[in-house]
């Protein structure tokens, strides 16, 4: 397998399971995907824009406390590339979950992640997520 195949098979598979845990209320597996070495940054779907490991832990503890009952999760990566010890992905997280105890509903978050290879392991160093808007672009050809 090539480097991109290895990245998809290992890192993205682990990240999908970590997100399933996060959207079920447990932030610990997702936080283990993150580097603890600055610089780190988050532009979150709920408006949290922050930097630094301690602040990311605080925010993701809050995020995990809001979600529960995740089901039907897919991490649909549209673009992935690796350049040296940096990688990035662009895609959508599609899942069903409950927020703040409300009934579970389908959700889509558009996400971009930046990863840094640290001691041979890919760690997230940046996440940008937003709620997918209605597509008002031109129709397909």
TrEMBL record:
<dbReference type="InterPro" id="IPR037401">
    <property type="entry name" value="SnoaL-like"/>
</dbReference>
<dbReference type="InterPro" id="IPR032710">
    <property type="entry name" value="NTF2-like_dom_sf"/>
</dbReference>
<feature type="domain" description="SnoaL-like">
    <location>
        <begin position="16"/>
        <end position="129"/>
    </location>
</feature>
<dbReference type="Pfam" id="PF13474">
    <property type="entry name" value="SnoaL_3"/>
</dbReference>
<protein>
    <submittedName>
        <fullName>Nuclear transport factor 2 family protein</fullName>
    </submittedName>
</protein>
